[in-house]
Design brief:
Number of domains: 2
CATH class of the largest domain: Alpha Beta
Number of strands: 20
Radius of gyration: 23 Å
Strand order of the largest sheet: 14-15-16-13-12-17-18
Shape: globular
CATH topology of the largest domain: Aldehyde Dehydrogenase, Chain A, domain 1
Distance between the termini: 70 Å
Structural class: alpha/beta
Helix content: 25-40%
CATH architecture of the largest domain: 3-Layer(aba) Sandwich
Number of helices: 14
Strand content: 15-25%
Largest sheet: 7 strands, mixed
CATH superfamily of the largest domain: Aldehyde Dehydrogenase, Chain A, domain 1
Length: about 475
Amino acid sequence: MLQLQDPSLLRQQCYIDGRWTDAQRHIDVTNPATGERVGQVPLLGADETRQAIEAANRALPAWRARTAKERSALLRKWFELLLANQDDLARIMTAEQGKPFAEARGEIGYAASFIEWFAEEGKRVYGETIPAPVSNQRIVVTKEPVGVCAAITPWNFPAAMITRKAGPALAAGCTMVVKPASQTPLTALAMVALAERAGIPAGVLSVVTGSAAAIGGELSSNPLVRKLTFTGSTEVGRTLMAQTASTIKKVSMELGGNAPFIVFEDADLDAAVEGAIVSKYRNAGQTCVCANRLYVHSKVYDAFAEKLVAAVRALKVGNGMEDGVRIGPLIDAKAVTKVEEHITDAISKGARVLQGGKRHALGQSFFEPTVLADVTPGMLVAREETFGPLAPLFRFETEDEVVAMANDTEFGLASYFYARDLGRVWRVSERLEYGMVGVNTGLISNEVAPFGGVKQSGVGREGSHYGIEDYLVIKYTCMAGI
């Protein structure tokens, strides 16, 4: 049983139009570290989702009519409540998602930062005047909320992926319906309970749980929804984009990645190893921006591999609530199978296991943090996102060669490289076909920078002052007869 300072945060009902709603059927939420049931949530479908959308549409006129400062004050209260309940929220997250408590606590702080940021950015949605071509006219450009928004969020960051969307939406004057992942709905429900406590009006923010197909289908096709935002796989994103086409919705998509992590011969190897640990093994490798392909110059390949293996060997695997644990379980058995498939394929084609390589003795969905050597572009791990604690090491000889290999993917979310030569830093940063580039760092996510990708890794940006633009539309007013 979860030990919370505020047990009322463990909600097992959905939140629609300011009311906590149950259903006849439910979905069990289990702890991936133990297999035990943490709770259950309603199995809702299209009808309940439609009710939430209609409530959001009813709440929209009054919410958008409030001043940006008034909306900001309510968001600020929500931000403060998120931080005041940081430990409880982190316990709920670790119980349903598995990540170490310290990481979960960090995510709650990260999630709250988006509410704080957009509470302020909402007051800085500026328009402009444009010199008219005719003397008796004036051209004025204003920005307005797009309207009712829908958000579909993943299980790997169950708090931050909601606030990155709800923060700018509510700050801009939009209302929102959120569909969290079925594996991790309890974090979302706890957060919306705090939003209610902060005074966010009924209908402005609703959370529905249940059938992904039924709820997603309604969110993507209902004409009242003017904007759909999604974080998840490219495959599902492609489907959702197709479903929104009939009603011409505005969309933002943060989709799959296949991030390269490049170590040049002049890199600080200790710093590069530290960055690789943070980028590759955070959340047991279950992040869309984690290093998926590690390219190491042949001159430093063996030295880097030795240092990386030593660091990986020191990572403690276990239940996220235990002290010192750095690697929790994978989300489910299917995730374990995919990691195994990538390792088996690589070994069959000549790769060597330097560390790990198999399921952990703890059982459940725990997997040993793994390092592979002698990996080549013909292996599955070079083309597919592993989403697990597997670091494959590729060799390269020249800058041109490694940039070509790094760009040889349909994805373009995050990329990383370590180098000291200033000319190389500029050249490689410009040549990498990615929405984000980390230079001499493995951690690039924060609320003030624009997060997003190119190619089939998505459209739109989250965070930064650009993030609110995805929830606004431009209106041009021509005033004549002056």
